[in-house]
Amino acid sequence: MTQLTITAAIASILALSLIPLSIQVGVKRLQTGIFFGEAGNSDLARRRAAQSNYVQYVPFFITLLAICELAGAATWLIASAGASMVLGRSLHAWCLLATNGTGNARAAGMILTFTSFALTGGYLGWWSMIAATN
């Protein structure tokens, strides 16, 4: 039986990281009484952006990472892609929440996120071509 130990560890970190992002949105909603949308509140908009952007990238990445691990990708590739995603999403969220949402940290977060997708997507593209010829 193949075990997805690295994927499980990365997925655990990413899942637990979503909790504070979600709590920050909920707390701001309670403070402002805005329970749907943003009603022009820029702080709530940034908090929602950090949470929703995280949710847009992370689930698909975990799926790709699991397929890579099942396909026999090298441990370094799986761990590097996972670490890149964790760091990338952390930098991106931090920049949205702790600054005005612009700056090098946000750009670095996106570069790391794209690096994670390039590693996993690139590996799976290569692996699928090799597997198809066997």
TrEMBL record:
- Please name the taxonomic classification of the source: Bacteria, Pseudomonadati, Pseudomonadota, Alphaproteobacteria, Kordiimonadales
Please provide, in alphabetical order, the Gene Ontology terms of the cellular component aspect for this entry: membrane
What transmembrane ranges does the database entry give? 6-27, 54-87, 107-126
Tell me yes or no: is Magnesium among this UniProt entry's keywords. no
Species this chain originates from:
Gimibacter soli
> What Pfam family is a match for this entry?
MAPEG
Which keywords appear in this protein's UniProt record, sorted alphabetically? Membrane, Transmembrane, Transmembrane helix
Q: Provide the primary localization.
A: membrane
Q: In which compartments does the protein localize?
A: Membrane
Recorded protein name is MAPEG family protein
